Amino acid sequence: MPFGATPSGGHMPTPGGRITPTPDKPNAHCGITAREALRALAFEAQLVAVAAENIARGLILGDGDRARLLVSWARITTIVAEVG
Q1: What pLDDT score was predicted for residue 19?
Q2: Checking CA distances to 67, which of 4, 6, 9, 46 falls within 20 to 30 Å?
Q3: What average pLDDT values come out for the chain (84 residues) when binned by 10 residues?
């Protein structure tokens, strides 16, 4: 599936696998709690920090690592959009 595709029929999956509203379906139920959002943010931020440290040490990230960082970006962006 290409980056940016939404497998859930136009909704973005949240870190907990739930559905979140998108501009075309603003009434979709999210179901993610503030605690879950903070846990997801902490996890994704840690992953990004480790990747940044690896890059700073001269390590080259593989395709899988870069793909996972895009997942982190999508999850962080989704949570930020939820908070509005």
Answers
A1: 55
A2: 9
A3: 39 53 58 86 96 97 96 93 81
C-alpha gyration radius of the chain: 14
pLDDT for 34: 86
- The encoded tokens of residue 61 equal 């990230």
The 3-state secondary structure of the chain reads: CCCCCCCCCCCEECCCCCEECECCECCCCCCCCHHHHHHHHHHHHHHHHHHHHHHHCCCCCCHHHHHHHHHHHHHHHHHHHHHC
* Structural tokens at position 44: 């994704």
